[in-house]
Amino acid sequence: MSKLCSLAEAISRYVHDGDLVYLAGFTHLIPFAAGHEIIRQGRKDLVLARATPDLIYDQMAAAGCARKIIFSYMGNPGVGSLKVLRRLLEAGRLEWEEYSHFGMITRLQAGASGLPFLPMNPTAATDLEQANPLYRRVTDPYSGREVIVVPPLQPDVAVIHVQRADARGNAHIWGIIGEQKEAAFAARRVIITAEEIVSEEVIRSDPNRTLIPEFIVDAVCHVPYCAHPSYTQGYYDRDNAFYLQWDEISETESAVQAYLNEWIFGVPDRNAYWEKLGAETHARLHVAPRLSHPVNYGAY
Amino acid sequence: MSKLCSLAEAISRYVHDGDLVYLAGFTHLIPFAAGHEIIRQGRKDLVLARATPDLIYDQMAAAGCARKIIFSYMGNPGVGSLKVLRRLLEAGRLEWEEYSHFGMITRLQAGASGLPFLPMNPTAATDLEQANPLYRRVTDPYSGREVIVVPPLQPDVAVIHVQRADARGNAHIWGIIGEQKEAAFAARRVIITAEEIVSEEVIRSDPNRTLIPEFIVDAVCHVPYCAHPSYTQGYYDRDNAFYLQWDEISETESAVQAYLNEWIFGVPDRNAYWEKLGAETHARLHVAPRLSHPVNYGAY
Amino acid sequence: MTELWTASELMTINAARLLRDGDVVFVGVGLPNLACNLARRTHAPNLYMIYEAGVIGARPNRLPLSIGDPTLVSGAAAVCSMYDIFTLYLQRGNVDVGFLGGAQIDRYGNINATVIGEYTHPRVRLPGSGGSMEIAAWANRCYIITPHQKRRFPERVDFCTSAGFLSGKGERQAAGVRGSGPQAVVTNLGILEPDENGELILTALHPGATLADARENTGWPLRTAAELKETVPPSAEELRILREELDPQGIYLK
Amino acid sequence: MTELWTASELMTINAARLLRDGDVVFVGVGLPNLACNLARRTHAPNLYMIYEAGVIGARPNRLPLSIGDPTLVSGAAAVCSMYDIFTLYLQRGNVDVGFLGGAQIDRYGNINATVIGEYTHPRVRLPGSGGSMEIAAWANRCYIITPHQKRRFPERVDFCTSAGFLSGKGERQAAGVRGSGPQAVVTNLGILEPDENGELILTALHPGATLADARENTGWPLRTAAELKETVPPSAEELRILREELDPQGIYLK
Predict the structure, then answer these.
(1) pLDDT at D167
(2) Which of A154, A187, A192, C224 is most exposed by smallest CB count within 10 Å?
């Protein structure tokens, strides 16, 4: 059964006010287009969860979509601060819940596994544990020593960007895979955005590459360049210049609102956004091919 | 640094009397050649751990290598009993320790993760838990309900058969991946056997396919057809006829010893074993190619 | 009983009919695999087959002869590790149907696949749980296919490898497992289903089988449903698919 | 201080020299990445670089500008999930060296990367732990590269994001973490190392830097090693590799 639909339809159908939303991807494959569409559709009171909020949650918070943020590293990767989120936190205008990367990812793994908690070895750094009551301790029944545990995180909806998927939602991902699989299995609803929609035959030629199977997927959207200014391995480069530029834009509320008006509210969809970026940016982000050696599954 | 050596050298150097040994592979990629070499070298008092002992542990037990077996399904897959192991257990001549598949695999996952235990949801079937004191219970600090936990399994040595590896031990595996990765990371020493030794360039053309990285590997052995009568996806078929034949051979001690004499002690290595199988078997197990569509990593 | 079909064919066809279109099924080899493939070719074209070896959405080109047959992998939708299949798929609640089997099934649908006699001094040592302890607990629904013999249907299993309703539905509910337990046992004589207390009672007989047959071959006083049904005989099309397409060599259906 | 090299170059070169051939290093971008690549091109050709994004054995063709730069992936030995990198690699004990950084490093090597002021009412909200809480605990050895400034070296951190020696070595040992903690802090003035109680003391000065400089820029009464060494000046070859091969545009080394 095909689950193909437009990104606008998918967001409208599966992302609701007040939802706990996980836009997945560690630096790689961040579904910016989905964040922009959520902004355009004016969602409110979202709980935004991501290990690294990155620019996309800075933008969504600036647009007023967020009630709370759950994170483990609130920086502009390779640049510095996420200034919108930082201002909101320093002003007490946004709730937050904080983990280390491992704590955050362990919450997703527990959520994806259907477990009530998962353990981690102690780190001796207890300040965050004291600040966040969802960190707990459990006694190892074998040694009598303590481990740190976190509860499952099960987002209402996860958006997962992938290189290629078939129309049913079986998805191939390569390059940095971060927490894509765990977020998809943890979530109650899953939206796949894909650079390419391919035939089942392409997916089924390499089943070990499929991280997400169709039957946990609700919608499949064909969204080329979805990840810009993040990137899609093999398809286009990370726009490091824009990450630097955001550091300037996000200095002032007015520049941020001007950006939202021009680049989010001012365009109908990702196609228009990509066209607006222009030929020079397209050329700058272009990448030459470097193909994997195929493997032989055998015609059994 | 190349870790290439013969399988005989690797077994002699890294498998010692009394070791806890894990020959990995769920139905697929079972390193029969390594088991046969352990038999030829006369190792004693081994603790043999595998989710599915399969014929290889039946043979190793028959050869007197084993003191104890740790398992979760002691059958001849698709055929019936493992008659050697069954006789030994019924006669009280072999120690055993037993789990469900999930319990066994969870022990490996805990061992691979460096954790003192991992939880599983309760199953309501408590007889095995009562029979095996390594199953314990822990209270979920969030709900107050109980989970079942198992401790880590960290084998002294694991043997992992793979389709292709480079000389340093970076290994590509596809098809059924079972517990290969978990067993390798859980073990103190790792022997890789490979159908093909390839250049670094082949491995590095597809880093997402690498399940085992060089720096946890101690030895790399080039052993084509290592898995027969199990199989290697894309390289040769499973020898179902031999699985049926073993059901007959293993009826009597004398037939088993005759088999060991002819097919293990009677051949110096896997090459000779494969040649001895003969052209008809080679033809029967041959498989036509079915290649994966390559993916593009980009020349960044 | 008529000889228009074998007992294996009869059980496979009746098991296939229990599957619903869209079900995600945790499949074993042998009769459950045939039942699933038959359902896909008849009333449940969107049945989704996953295997404990970590194969998702398999489309085998030949009859798989083991749970890890390479034909399950070539052309599958996805392959994952065993840890993933038991956590992300089964424990997470993504599996609708599991098939179970064992040497003994008791009055409350508990299954023994571990040992006849004492655990520490086995009279007959069986293979053990494999995946079944968790499948029985966490799949939404479970089905059992087994020949109807007194020694296979004792009042109480020697060892509870996989939980049915324990000593009654309340006890399973109290244990807090997510799955609803065994929903039907398909035998060569008919179909047993749990009553409101989780006791297996006879709800249908196959054409030609009698209540006396069933009682004689059950190790507890077998009760029947208020309205005992007769199953619809295998159709020519069901038999044709099994014999010509799925198991032409009669490996499982003899 | 001479101007034959920048402070960044000096710190990078001295950090590189702390690495041993064969070390498995958990690398961040920026100076740690440059230090590792410099070590690989000089005395540690078998240095093995892994990244918290899940990249193993990276061989970047260009200077990576973020922890998830695609050049780290193309041509790498392996890529795995974040859960795997923190469990199978870091928690399992497969990482020899971790690099750490933060806004504050205190007398006992504890690091604050979370907040200046109160946690619930932040004066300055910093990015937070990321991977560093676990790296500081579980990597066999940790190194810190940081400019030597009084505000960066308080007596006690406002918030302990990553554990050094807490209030002394005994307390870290009692906590039972596997790693041996921070082994050196490389600054633009010299090198600090923990004494037998885990207190950071000055063990070496760079050419031209003075003890007075170091004391003035440290927020606690800085003690020195019995024998205070002077670091070997950067060699022409080390500087050439940094400037010509690794960061020709001077992105990190200005």
Answers:
(1) 96
(2) C224
- Report the DSSP beta bridge partners of residue A80: A76
Q: Taking Cα atoms as reference points, which of D219, D216, D211 lies closest to residue D190? A: D211
Q: Set out the domains of chain A in order of their start, with CATH numbers.
A: 7-104+156-284 (3.40.1080.10)
Domain at D7-246, CATH class: alpha beta
Structure tokens at B25: 């592979």
Say whether D116 sits in a helix, a strand or coil: strand
**What is the Cα–Cα distance from A52 to A230, expressed in whole angstroms?**
12
The radius of gyration of chain B from alpha carbons, rounded to an integer in Å, stands at 20
Are the C-beta atoms of residues C49 and A213 closer than 8 Å to each other? no
Segment B194-253, tens digit of pLDDT: 999 999 999 999 999 999 999 999 999 999 999 999 999 999 999 999 999 999 999 999
The three-point CA angle C169-C172-C176 to 5° equals: 135
pLDDT at residue C1 is higher than 50: no
User: Which regions of A103-186 does DSSP assign to beta strands (E)?
Assistant: 118-120, 136-139, 146-150, 157-165, 171-172
What are the tokens at B142? 């969030």
Q: Which residues pair with D184 in a beta bridge?
A: D143
Q: Is C132 helix (H, G, I), strand (E, B) or coil?
A: helix
Token couple for A210: 């499929």
Contacts of C114 in chain B (CB under 8 A): 98, 127-128
Are C79 and B174 an interchain contact pair (Cβ–Cβ within 8 Å)?
yes
The catalytically annotated residue of D9, D52, D199, D238 is D52
* ipTM of the modeled complex: 0.97
Q: Catalytic: D52?
A: yes
Q: From CA A235, how far away is CA B298, in angstroms rounded?
A: 7
Which amino acid is present at B132? N
Q: Shortest CA distance to A155 belongs to which of A119, A114, A187?
A: A187
Enumerate chain C positions whose Cβ falls within 8 A of a Cβ in A. 24, 46, 48, 55-57, 59, 61-62, 69-71, 73-79, 87-88, 91-94, 138, 178
- Candidates B247, B173, B185, B165; CA nearest to B22 is B185
Query: Which chain D residues are within 8 Å of A26, Cβ to Cβ?
Result: 53-54, 68, 82
Residues whose CB is less than 8 angstroms from the CB of residue B261 and which lie 6 or more positions away in sequence, other chains included: none
CA dihedral B208, B209, B211, B212 (to 10 degrees): -100
Distance between CA C103 and CA C153 in Å, rounded? 9
Q: What percentage of chain A exceeds 70 in pLDDT? A: 100
Can you give the residue ranges of every domain in chain D? 7-246
Q: Distance between CA C159 and CA C111 in Å, rounded?
A: 8
Chain centre to alpha carbon of residue C76: 23
Torsion over CA: A168, A169, A170, A173 (sign): positive
CA-based nearest residue to B162, from B114, B211, B115, B95: B211
Q: What share of chain B is helix, strand, coil (3-state, %, to 5)?
A: 35, 25, 40
B192 has which bridge partners? B160, B220
For the stretch A174-215, pLDDT in tens is: 999 999 999 999 999 999 999 999 999 999 999 999 999 999
Amino acid at residue number C130: G
Q: Which letter, b or e, does each residue of C147-160 get, where b requires 16 or more Cβ atoms within 10 Å of its Cβ?
A: ebeeebbbeebbbb
Closest residue in B to D80 (Cα–Cα)? B208
Q: What is the rounded distance in angstroms from the CA atom of residue B260 to the CA atom of residue B54? A: 16
* Residue C26 burial (10 A CB sphere; 0-12, 13-18, 19+): buried
A99 and A131 Cβ atoms separated by less than 8 Å: no
H/E/C letters for each residue in D32-60?
Answer: HHHHHHHHHHCCCCCCEEEECCCEECCCC
From D48, D70, D78, residue closest to B300, measured CB to CB: D70
Element (H, E) at A165: strand A157-165
Specify the pTM: 0.97
Q: What single letter denotes the amino acid at residue A210?
A: T
Q: Which chains touch C (3 or more CB pairs under 8 A)?
A: A, B
Residue corresponding to tokens 């750490």: D100
